[in-house]
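User: Quick sanity check before I run a bigger batch. Here is a single chain. Can you write out its predicted 3D structure?
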Amino acid sequence: MAKDPIEALRWEKRIVVYQLESESAREAARARWLEWREDFEERDLVWVNVGKPELSIADGVDLRREQKDEWRRRLAFGEKSGASVEREGASEFVLIGKDGGTKDRQMGELDLPEFFALIDTMPMRLREMRFQRETEAR
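Assistant: Done. Predicted structure follows.
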């Protein structure tokens, strides 16, 4: 069996695992990503879709169907809202840190600045920002 693409990103990337409720939710999330793309990339973030529809963006990781099912189960997608596993209920976004731990969950409309604010308090991110400042000062 091939290595899990999400596990392969541990210590390299932060991940937003998502499931969208509709095409309109897809368009809204895509617009938010386009608005905040530089900030997204600066924080080493990638998207992983575990439902339908997909964002269809460059910063995404593809999963096979069984991997999507497994990650929806692991992250309890749909359980917070009482929705079915894949299709009904609010859109969900789960932030996973570089250490592989679940850091935050958003239901409904995506608020990337909220994720960014949380990421910017994490020890690994603080080290990254300090290193970036030191590098720029040279």
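The beta strands are 14-19, 45-49, 60-61, 92-96, 102-107.

User: Great, the batch can go ahead then.
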